[in-house]
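Example 9 (inverse folding). The structure is encoded as follows.
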């Protein structure tokens, strides 16, 4: 690692962390825009929130501008179009259950004819403002709830009785849209994952007239979903196990591991297994995003010295040089030193200090590069669009998800497991009474 990076990164990161996370006021002259695709399942979820959002926007922010694209962007993480499509359907199904969105039990992508009919309806309608948003929500329901008969009827009426409308707040184009997102003051907010962040921003700038209540079962950082002692004992007795696939140069890996270890692992009796990955170039990250996540999750995150490929390899060497039962604590300490002390493991002095701190007498003789490649292969088999990748095993079931945005799923899954367990016990008792 260059001397400039080794010395300048900790200074720069400390300065950046001490700055206010939010710019006090963002310009409102461009209003608020949402980008959708009719064949995007996240757009379907987002459409169910838009009438309420429009209702509580101040007059300054109305009307909400809607851009409907018929062009998708390339899937992330080298996923195929089919893999991405299946991931989105599964993920949206989980989100819909967690946040009480309307959703079909067996969702399918709408067919081309239905999509064209839906676009025609929305292009032709003279409705505007909240009325248009309610219509758009209904059209999305017809597409994704397989209500093709209703869609054909509405399409026939729109085609016969109305002409194409041209309103400035309603745009149809071919802007590549991977999944639904809002745009405010040139900043992008993912339509589901960042909805609460957007609402906080709008509320901060007094651009809402009422309290925003969108994701009703959202789990805040460090607020446990399960607090009843009996329920907690039930989960702990199931011995949950969690695998983490992490890129060592990615600060999100530190934030996620630290949060889970400090807040969830002991509380729920989770066995954590760490699988470091080879260098993925994730040291070029969004500093403001990582800073914001650090403050939201209450995990320390400065000063740091971004690891290079050589530093990541050195971190993995230290990790695999400790006994298996000590590896979790070792990885926590390695990442803590890198992301809160500014240590550079590719620098011999720092490497030797880390080695002493971890009480490593003999470095491993394993081929570290080969070991990381094996972890890469197992991680790729999970077919996830982002890192870190998590696999939770409990009650003979396995659940795979990804990123810091989905950490809430751990507790949500526990809650669902308990619900199924109690349901099964009640059914068993009822059967015994009958006999």
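The amino acid assigned to each position is listed next.
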């Amino acid at each position: 690692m260059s001397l400039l990076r080794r010395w300048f990164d900790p200074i720069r990161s400390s300065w950046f962390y001490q700055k206010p996370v939010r710019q006090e006021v963002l310009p409102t002259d461009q209003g608020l825009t949402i980008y959708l695709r009719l064949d995007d399942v996240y757009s379907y979820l987002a459409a169910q929130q838009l009438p309420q959002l429009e209702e509580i926007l101040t007059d300054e922010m109305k009307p909400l501008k809607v851009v409907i694209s018929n062009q998708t962007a390339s899937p992330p993480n080298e996923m195929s179009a089919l893999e991405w499509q299946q991931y989105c359907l599964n993920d949206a199904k989980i989100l819909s259950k967690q946040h009480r969105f309307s959703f079909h039990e067996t969702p399918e992508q709408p067919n081309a004819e239905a999509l064209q009919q839906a676009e025609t309806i929305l292009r032709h309608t003279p409705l505007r403002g909240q009325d248009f948003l309610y219509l758009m929500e209904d059209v999305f329901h017809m597409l994704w709830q397989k209500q093709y008969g209703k869609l054909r009827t509405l399409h026939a009426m729109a085609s016969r009785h109305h002409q194409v409308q041209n309103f400035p707040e309603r745009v149809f184009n071919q802007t590549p849209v991977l999944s639904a997102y809002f745009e405010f003051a040139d900043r992008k907010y993912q339509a589901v994952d960042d909805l609460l962040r957007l609402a906080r921003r709008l509320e901060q700038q007094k651009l809402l007239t009422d309290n925003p209540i969108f994701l009703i079962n959202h789990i805040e950082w460090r607020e446990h979903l399960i607090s009843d002692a009996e329920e907690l004992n039930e989960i702990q007795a199931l011995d949950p196990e969690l695998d983490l696939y992490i890129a060592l140069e990615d600060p999100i890996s530190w934030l996620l591991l630290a949060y889970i270890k400090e807040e969830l692992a002991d509380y729920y009796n989770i066995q954590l297994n760490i699988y470091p990955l080879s260098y993925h170039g994730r040291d070029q990250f969004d500093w403001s995003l990582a800073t914001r996540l650090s403050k939201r999750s209450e995990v320390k995150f400065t000063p740091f010295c971004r690891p290079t490929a050589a530093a990541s390899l050195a971190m993995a060497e230290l990790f695999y040089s400790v006994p298996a039962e000590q590896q979790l604590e070792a990885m926590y300490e390695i990442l803590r030193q890198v992301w809160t002390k500014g240590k550079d493991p590719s620098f011999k002095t720092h490497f030797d200090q880390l080695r002493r701190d971890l009480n490593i007498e003999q470095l491993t003789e394993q081929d570290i590069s080969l070991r990381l490649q094996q972890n890469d292969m197992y991680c790729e088999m999970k077919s996830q669009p982002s890192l870190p990748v998590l696999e939770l095993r409990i009650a003979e079931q396995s659940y795979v998800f990804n990123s810091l945005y989905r950490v809430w799923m751990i507790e949500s899954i526990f809650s669902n497991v308990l619900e199924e367990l109690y349901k099964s016990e009640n059914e068993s008792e009822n059967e015994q009474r009958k006999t």
